[in-house]
Amino acid sequence: LPPAPAPGPYLPPPAPVPAGPTPAGPAVDPGASPEARALRDAYEQLAGTPRRDLIVIPAQGHTVVRDLRDANDRARDAGELDERARGLVATHAATEQAQLARLGADQQAQYGRLVAATEQDPPARFALQVLLAEGRLTAGPANKDSLGLLAALDRAATGPVASGLDQRRMVADMIQEIARPSCIAQKERGTCAGATTQIMLATAQPAEYARLVAGLASPEGRVVTAGGPTLTRYRGTAGDDGTTRTISARLYQAAVMAYAIAEGRGAQYRNTENGQGLTYDETALAMRAVSGRKVEALDLYNEAHRRNEALERMERETAAGKQVQVGADGHAMVVTGVDRARSVVLVINPHGTEERIDLATFRQGLSGANFYVD
Question: Fewer C-beta neighbours within 10 Å, C or N terminus of the chain?
Answer without folding.
Answer: C
